[in-house]
Amino acid sequence: MEKRPVIAVVGGGAAGCFAAANLSRMLPKAKIIIFEAGKKPLVKVGLTGGGRCNLTNTFESVDSLEKVYPRGSSVMKRAIRTFSPEDVASWFRGEGVSLKVEEEGRVFPCSDDALEIVSCLLSVLKEGGVEIITGKRLTSLSEGFRMSFSDGSSFESDFALVATGGGASEFLKPLGIEVIPPVPSLFSFRIDDKNLCALSGCSIKNVTLRIGKLSSEGPLLITDWGLSGPATLKLSSYAARHLSEHSYKEHLSINWLGGINESITRDALQDLLKANLRKMISSSPIEGIPSRLWTYLLSKALIRSDLRWGEAGSKGINRLVETLINDNYTITGKNRFKAEFVTAGGVALSEINLSTMESKKFPGLFLAGEALDIDAVTGGFNLQAAWSTGFAAAKAIAEKLF
Description:
The protein is of the alpha+beta class. Helix content is 33%, strand content 23%. It has helices at 14-26, 43-47, 65-68, 73-82, 85-94, 114-127, 194-197, 230-238, 240-245, 262-275, 291-300, 313-325, 381-401; strands at residues 6-10, 31-36, 56-57, 99-101, 106-109, 131-134, 138-142, 146-149, 154-156, 159-162, 179-185, 189-190, 203-211, 214-222, 226-228, 250-255, 327-331, 333-334, 342-347, 365-367. The strands form five sheets. A seven-stranded antiparallel beta sheet has the order 17-16-13-14-15-12-18. Strands 6-2-1-10-20 form a five-stranded parallel beta sheet, covered by helices on one side. A hairpin with a 3-residue loop joins strand 7 and strand 8 (146-149). The model has no long low-confidence stretch (mean pLDDT 94).
């Protein structure tokens, strides 16, 4: 009798479950088991996108993968060719999930319910006979794919696919596999400025944030602890390791007008001045700046709110230009809620075949999703990485057994 191949998937998140679901169809005779450390699989998928599940992105506005994948763009170039955003949409539609595209190319289920995606994956896993064992935290993995778990049990398989978080993949170090220490990514900034935080709830459509040579552009939200919103989260991703190394204390510069430079800003203020000589400066904000924020910025530029435009003076205009395009703050920490769903770090990409996700040192060992040093900005890109790398690993395993 032909031996039934055994495939162990470590990690019941998006990448692990998606890989197992596809393996069950590619290799219907294989025995596939998912080992999940938590109480149930796909917990983070059920929470992502505010419970709506931003499961991918159209990538239509992405001109460079490096901009959305600060770490891992090299492997994502190959993974997306193997399993693209269009493939993701087609796969889920094929399982009866209706999808919609929202602003910035973000793709959601029409139900706005992340649990629909969870149920869909669990249904395919059940249909394929995939066994899911929860409460199984892997503590060691030896050559030959003998696994030891925290409860004292062990398991052996023909193939192993590790799709745990970056920190959990530490058990690979004893095998001589390089693991980049994980640090938080996608977090908001704590800024101890009472006057700024008093503007909590104020949103700006487009700003540019800068930490040293790193910058991001997009919407910004002022909170009662500092700054959040897409521009902040994007910059936190770009600067994740830098901020960790500096204990989340760093200088931050804000251009409140987005990409508009000093010359254009000065011209815009001069136009406002000429058109509103007798009007109060506080009642005539520059376009795109909410009135509450405008009053705050005037005070930072040492301009009294009871002055008229004609009384601003050249020095006042100079200070206002500088405040608008180069407003300086000090980041004193990351958000206090410890709610990061994404980390930067994991198995170094130099350890794997970038096309198959297979370990270079241990044939038959595959890695996918957050186990790898891949992470992205918000917008559905992190889940795309999970689907693409999970599918690529499943495809490579199946081809080994054909």
